[in-house]
């Protein structure tokens, strides 16, 4: 089968859009290294054709196994382009782990999987130093965290001691052991899952760790039509098909180029102020015990840039910010006990805040 995404060096070069009618070739100045297209009255400043082709190839590969979950897939791709970690929360059986594992399979990078349990130790995650008597010195043996994509299943089953081992590597992309710093491979992405309904044998994630996740995605039940499609697939023998049907279609080099394009996205100063006001309002809202930090503002900015690029735009809109506000803020803020007793949710608070703040136009 032919690879839907050409990974040759020639194919990675930005394509130049056709000249507008009445425009001469001499009048066009293209910076091919940055993927910049000529700026006209109606033209885009950045060419996202390669980015669109790559992300569409990833979607097609995931659709070979995953039925529905279009919004979750879009948000996972957004986090991938923004360079942030993802926390997937949902009841058992909604394909959280499967979706994360298949996304990792679409990338031509190293992958490891960790099953968090109550007896897991920090050294089981980060690695440990082993004494070599032949040389009379200690040698560091890297743990499973040293991979580009790390899937942590049931992350809330490990105690706080093990959870704290992730703080440094998730934020700074390196591990410090015995006074020596060891960088993890780039790109580095943590995909974690957790079950929101089970309480026995689980531990609440520390706020400092939750804050290191770019998005928290709620994976819900499929629609009736999607569940019928799942049943039809299993009835026809598709159930149990190995995940090897999903092929790698995106290299680390391509992903680095796309992230560079995302960082160069245009955003108006008034939208920066809008983000700051949205996040700042969480710190004074009477229904919240804990507001979001400036890291949430940065996450919302980077996520909005990535979402705009994913949707083929070279500029951020207020709608991008509003769409991402719940997934960026829901795990970074805490309700007051009174609001929790009333049955409120953090998503409700975020919606209230967005309704109270004037949208820039």
UniProtKB/TrEMBL annotation:
Residues 1-23 are annotated as: Disordered. The keyword Chloroplast does not apply. Coiled coil: none annotated. InterPro entries: AAA+_ATPase, ATPase_AAA-3, CbbQ/NirQ/NorQ/GpvN, ChlI/MoxR_AAA_lid, P-loop_NTPase. It comes from the Bacteria. Keywords: ATP-binding, Nucleotide-binding. GO terms for molecular function: ATP binding; ATP hydrolysis activity. Residues 1-14 have a biased composition (Polar residues). The keyword Transport does not apply. Residues 82-223 form the AAA+ ATPase domain. Pfam families: AAA_3 (PF07726), AAA_lid_2 (PF17863). Belongs to the MoxR family. This is MoxR-like ATPase. It comes from Hymenobacter mucosus.
């Amino acid at each position: 089968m032919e690879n839907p995404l050409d990974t040759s060096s020639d194919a990675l070069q930005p394509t130049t859009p056709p000249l507008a009618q009445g425009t001469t070739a001499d009048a066009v100045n293209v910076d091919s290294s940055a993927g910049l297209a000529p700026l006209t009255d109606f033209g885009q400043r950045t060419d996202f054709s390669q980015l669109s082709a790559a992300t569409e190839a990833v979607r097609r590969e995931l659709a070979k196994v995953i039925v529905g979950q279009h919004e979750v897939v879009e948000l996972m791709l957004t986090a991938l382009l923004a360079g942030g970690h993802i926390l997937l929360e949902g009841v058992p059986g909604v394909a959280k782990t499967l979706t994360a594992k298949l996304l990792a399979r679409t990338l031509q990078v190293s992958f490891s999987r960790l099953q968090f349990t109550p007896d897991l130790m920090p050294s089981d995650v980060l690695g440990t130093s082993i004494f070599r008597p032949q040389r009379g010195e200690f040698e560091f043996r890297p743990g499973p965290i040293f991979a580009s994509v790390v899937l942590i299943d049931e992350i809330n089953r490990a105690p706080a001691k093990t959870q704290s081992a992730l703080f440094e590597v998730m934020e700074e992309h390196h591990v410090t052991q015995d006074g020596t710093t060891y960088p993890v491979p780039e790109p580095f992405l943590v995909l974690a899952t957790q079950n929101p309904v089970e309480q026995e044998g689980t531990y609440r994630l520390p706020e400092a760790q939750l804050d290191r996740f770019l998005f928290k995605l709620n994976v819900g039940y499929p629609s009736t039509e999607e569940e019928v499609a799942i049943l039809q697939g299993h009835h026809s023998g598709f159930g149990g098909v190995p995940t090897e049907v999903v092929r790698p279609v995106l290299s680390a080099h391509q992903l680095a180029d796309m992230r560079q394009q995302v960082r160069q996205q245009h955003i108006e100063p008034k939208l920066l102020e809008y983000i700051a006001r949205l996040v700042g309002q969480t710190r004074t809202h009477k229904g919240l015990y804990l507001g979001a930090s400036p890291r949430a503002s940065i996450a919302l900015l980077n996520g909005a840039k990535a979402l705009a690029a994913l949707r083929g735009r070279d500029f951020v809109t207020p709608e991008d910010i509003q769409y991402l506000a719940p997934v960026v803020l829901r795990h970074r803020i805490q309700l007051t006990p009174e609001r929790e007793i009333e049955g409120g949710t953090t998503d409700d608070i975020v919606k209230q805040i967005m309704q109270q703040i004037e949208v820039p136009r």
